[in-house]
Write a structure and sequence with these properties.
The protein is α+β, with helices and mostly antiparallel strands and 402 residues long. It folds into three domains: 239 residues, FAD/NAD(P)-binding domain; 78 residues, Beta Barrel (Elongation Factor Tu (Ef-tu), domain 3); 64 residues, Helicase, Ruva Protein, domain 3, CATH 1.10.8. The strands form five sheets. Strands 1, 2, 7, 8, 9, 10 and 20 form a seven-stranded mixed β-sheet that branches. The radius of gyration is 25 Å and the shape is elongated. The chain binds dihydroflavine-adenine dinucleotide (FDA). Dihydroflavine-adenine dinucleotide (FDA) binds next to helix 1, helix 2 and helix 13.
């Protein structure tokens, strides 16, 4: 039976980082993964170019029941540290908007970089290899795998979240946590499109493909959030960065509020254009807003506006109705019926409850030698490279400790 200092289950972003760091410290490390292809989520990330970090990362960019937990690991391994690593491997990158950093060529370069870092740490691989069971012994963990038993003094769970099960995502990490008596914060799809009741959405379904900047908010107080980003209409509901971001904060049953013209004051513009204007209300709106959206919006809101409102000359449109129209666009309130689910989600929110983990080592305080890192843990980043930065940072913190 192989005896190791450290066994890491899950050879994704966090697992490879952790294995490499521990291996390069001289630990005898084995990395196990049930997938046939290495690090599929890194491969498909950022449209194939991997948004590997963000220039500006702090605890405010993460959601967790224990918001300060991520602070120590994020401070211990910063975006600059990862940029330096990427630079040492000669990977060219560029910055997109809001500090998001992407590979110039391909996310495969990040996978290859991590593979080489593991090689430098003489990490042993078991892949594809399913782990059927884990038994804790006095001074070690015994893994029953389909490549035979593996024994290790320390066990790191880095099996990620449940998003994109078609790529092999599982709830393995949550099951292990429960096996060892740790609490789990209810997992849910996050960074995910929102869906609506088919009948209620019918007037907007024709808008599928329309994208525009919007300010989206949900919740109130500490649980509230607001994002100004692009929004995309789909056949079943809403997507685009603004919606993905807000979905991570949205609680089932709660409304979301959307300002579909955040840079304008429609009321002021329409009322100012009104005196003597011969154009129709629909055309006046379309001069300020995407034409398809203007037409569909007037149709969808027809019950709340005077009959034939869109076809009225702007000069003849009552101020009250123009105000109502503007208000509806700036303060669109709607209750999603749900999300598009794990199949379409970028991440899982919730996970292993961090109140049971040590923030410097990621070790379960009550279960010596058992560590959890990456997305399995209840730390969920915003869209924009934050989830990878958490994977790298928690992986490094753990790799230095095991
Ligand atoms: P990760 O999912 O990377 O790795 C987990 C590993 O565990 C996998 O290799 C899996 O095969 C293995 N595993 C699972 N269950 C197992 C089991 N039972 N037994 C053995 N092995 C098991 N983030 C970001 O910051 N920038 C971006 O550009 C993107 N883009 C993006 C696009 C898409 C489409 C998705 C779905 C996600 C992103 N993300 C992202 C999120 C990011 O991919 C994610 O947060 C990290 O990969 C999480 O790293 P982990 O190492 O925790 O899990």
């Amino acid at each position: 039976m192989g005896g190791f200092d450290v066994a890491v289950i899950g050879a994704g972003a966090a697992g490879m980082m952790c294995a490499a760091v521990a291996g390069q410290r001289g630990r005898k490390v084995v990395l196990l993964d049930h997938a046939a292809r290495l690090a599929e989520k890194i491969r498909i990330s950022g449209g194939g170019r991997c948004n590997f970090t963000n220039r500006s990362v702090g605890p405010a960019n993460f959601i967790s029941e224990n918001p300060d937990f991520c602070r120590s690991a994020l401070a211990g391994y910063t975006p600059q540290d990862f940029i330096a690593l990427v630079g040492r491997h000669g990977i060219a990158w560029h910055e997109k908007h809001r500090g998001q950093l992407f590979c110039d060529d391909s996310s495969e370069q990040i996978i290859e970089m991590l593979r080489r870092e593991c090689q430098q740490g003489q990490v042993a691989w078991r892949m594809p290899c399913a782990v059927r069971g884990i038994v804790r012994q006095a001074d070690a963990y015994l893994l029953d795998t389909d490549q035979g038993p593996v024994r290790a003094a320390r066990l790191v769970i880095a099996t990620g979240g449940m998003a994109i099960p078609q790529l092999g995502a599982t709830d393995f990490g949550l099951k292990v946590a429960r096996q060892f008596g740790l609490k789990v914060v209810e997992p849910r799809p996050a960074l995910v499109p929102l869906t609506f009741d088919a009948a209620a959405w019918q007037p907007f379904a024709a808008l599928a493909g329309v994208a525009l900047q919007a300010r989206v908010r949900t919740g109130a107080g500490k649980r509230g959030a607001e994002f100004l980003e692009d929004l995309l209409f789909t056949h079943r509901g809403l997507s685009g960065p603004a919606i993905l971001q807000i979905s991570s904060y949205w609680q089932p049953g709660e409304p979301i509020g959307i300002d579909l013209a955040p840079e304008l004051s429609l009321e002021r513009e329409l009322l100012a254009a009104k005196p003597g204007a011969r154009q129709q209300v629909a055309s006046a709106l379309a001069a300020l807003w995407p034409r398809r959206l203007a037409d569909a919006w007037l149709l969808a809101m027809q019950e709340r506006l005077p009959a034939g409102f869109g076809a009225l000359r702007l000069a003849d449109a009552p101020d009250r109705a123009l105000r109502l129209l503007a208000q509806g666009i700036h303060q669109w309130a709607l209750v999603p019926s749900g999300t598009a689910g794990y199949k379409k989600a970028e991440v899982m929110r919730g996970g292993v409850d961090t109140r049971a983990l040590d923030q410097k080592t990621m070790q379960a305080r009550a279960v010596p030698g058992l560590h959890f890192i990456g997305e399995t843990v209840d730390v969920t980043g915003w869209l924009g490279g934050y989830n990878f930065q958490w994977a790298w940072a928690s992986g490094v913190a753990c790799g230095k400790a095991v």
